[in-house]
């Protein structure tokens, strides 16, 4: 790993690892950062227990991995705009109970994200992550060849509709600006990871609306199949949150699903989103 203080325990063959030996609130050294990035490449999502983080500490930690995104519609931690507050209950129902890759409505979507559990329901509220790499590898060779070089449209409005995010005049102003600033984006259906060179599926139920090169019937059929394929249990890991838990995932070739099984209880999570690069497909990486 490159840092003897870290212990990385895989949670499954496809995705997920538990990391011990760090107190994230104290900050991390360059060697620890590099070790975490190496573990992230291998396991796609890392979990840390007993890591209570303030918004300022979470922002500082995330900033060690890159520039941070400020979300156009989600509420922010007071005085820390880089930390979004996902506060869900009967009065504010969850909107992330679908498989999605964060902020793919950007031209250069997030490299990763760090999520911190702030308030949890008595039970439920788990999050699942899926590996686009494992899902891609499990497709047949003819199907992979059919998908090679195709592009898909990712639309902000699919996850952020007006009826949910423009309910008041103030929300409407913010939502209209966000819609204007984030037109639909095209990304490759198969994405090549910029560091590992691995190929993975890069479509998600949360944002992907169509495959551009296919007609509507073909696109709908292929996307339905890929969404179902990506959610197969063998490509996933499920985390049962405890207060103070932190998850750090590689957003480039994963997606995640926050279960909405805890209502009417309340769940509060803080997320820092680390900006990434423009997705690409490189055929010679196959």
TrEMBL record:
Residues spanning the signal sequence: none
Any GO molecular function: metal ion binding
Swiss-Prot/TrEMBL cofactor(s): Fe(2+)
GO cellular component, as recorded: cytoplasm
Pfam families in the record: TauD
One example of a Gene Ontology biological process annotation: sulfur compound metabolic process
InterPro entries, per database record: AtsK-like (IPR051323), TauD-like_sf (IPR042098), TauD/TfdA-like (IPR003819)
Keywords: Dioxygenase, Iron, Metal-binding, Oxidoreductase
Family to which this protein belongs: Belongs to the TfdA dioxygenase family.
Protein name, UniProt field: Taurine dioxygenase
Lineage: Bacteria, Pseudomonadati, Pseudomonadota, Betaproteobacteria, Burkholderiales
